[in-house]
Amino acid sequence: MSDGMQCSSPARVTRRFFMVTSGAAAAVAGSPAVLRAQAREVKVGYILPVTGPLAFEAALALNGLTLATDEINTGGGIKSLGGAKITLLPGDTQNKVELGNSEASRLIDQGAVAIIGPFSSLVAFSVRQVTEKNRTPFLLLAAVADNLTEGGLKYTFRMQPNGKAMATLTVSNMFEMAKNANVPIRRVAMMHEEGNFGTTMGNHVEAFAKTMGYELVQRIPYNLRSPDLTSELSKVKASRPDLLIVSGYYGDSKLIAETASKLKIGVNALVGLANAAYSNPKFIAENRELTEQLFDGNYWHNPQSPRARAVFDAYQKKFGATMSNHSVQGYEVMFVLRDALERAGSMDRDKLREAIAKTNLTDQILTQESIRFDEAGEDIYATPALIQVQNGKPVVVGPAKYAEAKPIFPVLKWKG
Amino acid sequence: MTWGLLLQAVVSGLLLGGVYGLVASGLSLVFGVLRVINFAHGSVMMLAMYATYWLFVLGGVDPYLSMVLTAPLFFVLGVAIQKVVIEPNRSSAEHNQLLLTLGLALFFENLALVLWQGDFRTVKVSYSGASFMLGDALVEVPRLIASAGAVLVAGTLFAFLRLTDVGKALRALAEEPEGAALVGINVPRIRAASFGLGSACVAVAGALITPFFYVAPDVAESFNIMAFVVVVLGGMGNLVGALAGGFIVGLAESLGAAFLPGSLKLLVVFAIFILVLLFRPQGLFGGSRGR
Fold it and tell me: What domains lie within chain B, and their CATH numbers?
């Protein structure tokens, strides 16, 4: 996951390219009413950091949105709206708060029935006010900060797990696995980057200790630019933890795994928590030996779902790459919207909002039973999967229901 | 507290400190002669790391060997920066020169972002993961080489300043710019040489860091701020001070990490920084005059 993460980001979309394509889309969106009357369309706005430091991740999410939109449109559009086709209205936030706000306003003015985005929690926090004021449904993509659904908002919905769900469910999954393996976990160490993302995760892991009955023997926030973390990891090693949990971005998480390996850190497993590297295919491919049997708790797709397999094939065909978890999120959120549009049978934003609130979507590709929203707009079933790198591939090993492989635990190489 | 942890912290601190010292030497040299705080120093190092990376990926040149190419190349780049950007603005106010180097840093960083994207790249050499145990302490070979290399380079630079004519001219300029001009030293040329040497220094640092770290457009941020702390600590313009300051900062950082809770380690470093500025603004080892 990793909202706001700064990892591996080839800026695929140049600003110029984005302007050209968005200009074309805007031209379509602004076509005369006569044309629109013939083929009805539903305008859906997305705001993503298409250029800037998160461009790579944004492109992945956008691929998912596009894939879903094409699937819906070729399948006959929104049937309850007379087969209206979905048109994506593009917005670029460059990962900046002020642009998030202005782009959301612009898209709403252009007639978007809902806004999807914006990846970073910081931008999301501010855009909520724009969408709320304009009574426009706002489907959060990738952003996980807990406070985004706080404050009695009516129009903000989040399909993915928030920080709390991400942390506590990942820890629960690990404990479940340890219990099955008869290797109890009593001592837990946590390292996290000291920004908002890492600190949130650290707080949850600390707060959860009493409930789960483990001792948090070390909690080390670190600067993600630290050129050396040997002393920190020696301290972790000296506290003899059974488990080391790492919430970090790309370069720092890599440094931690490498140093832990050299220090023979002696844990039963190294576990990422919403880690930007540990289940990242690029990281795994470039560090085969190091990454083997690493765990990560992250949002993911359900590998047991035949539909997920079909979607992955379609993605591979369209984009020539393996679908990533960011793309899965983009894809699924569009289907949440389609489901609501079908039930609303209207392009009225308030009616659409009511329909989203009543969502109970079981035909979906995530590692959860269904997608349903509570009062605050949080998906009550949202669950991260527990992923382990096995034979150079990230596979789901928990929760058991969705597992595609048995977890390898304890991980002997970390025991040293 | 265990001895093992203490030993590890000391070893890690010394290994890291050498690198800080090397990055800081170039900065200190430029400041000593030009009286310019060069904010672009770190981004020049970043460019050097990319040069090292590409030489390795495209030409199969070992990172350590690549110094032979990158150091002269970055000397020329440094001279060019001085001649084209800094020198014409010598007469303008000091804060303008400072902003100029800051602008240069932003320019280089964004140039790298455009050319090579935000990807984290690593040079995979056979010895990247090499390490051994010294008692209870882990010693990573590439970090050891970097730290030892830093001492070697600083020593060479020191000898160069003491023993060669250009070196003596550099020192003369640092001590007394007007006097240096009066005795017939070609001042603009020596200024260019100092910027060139500073850049070559940081190019060597970049080559030494690449085998154990990653390369990315914003990689300099990991070393840049520390380099400034080191320069202040060692005394602006004092090379030996820069190296010693590097070791002090490295040790403070790793001991802080080992024995203080949370992310207090940087607090220790910056507290030292402020204390030195307050009570010994010329640095622990004296400024360029005390060299």
Answer: 3-117+128-290 (1.10.3470)
pLDDT-derived band at B194, boundaries 50, 70, 90: very high
pLDDT of residue A39: 59
Full set of structural domains in chain A with CATH: 15-160+304-357 (3.40.50.2300), 164-298+385-415 (3.40.50.2300)
Taking a contact as any Cβ pair under 8 Å apart, which residues of chain B between 102 and 141 contact chain A?
113-114, 117-120, 122, 129, 131, 138, 140
Using the structure block, give the residue that is written with the tokens 């250029």. Answer: A51
The distance between the two most distant Cα atoms of chain A, rounded to a whole number of Å, is 73
**pTM to 2 decimal places:** 0.86
- B162's CB contacts (< 8 A; 6+ apart) are B168
Q: Which of A9, A223, A254 sits opposite B117 (nearest CB)?
A: A9
Mean pLDDT of B110-135: 87
User: CA A187 to CA A168: how far, in whole Å?
Assistant: 16
Express each pLDDT in B70-90 by its tens digit. 999 999 999 999 999 999 988
The complex scores an ipTM of: 0.88
DSSP H helices, chain B, are 3-34, 41-59, 63-81, 94-116, 141-163, 165-175, 177-182, 187-209, 221-234, 239-259, 264-279
Closest CA to B200 of B41, B90, B36: B41
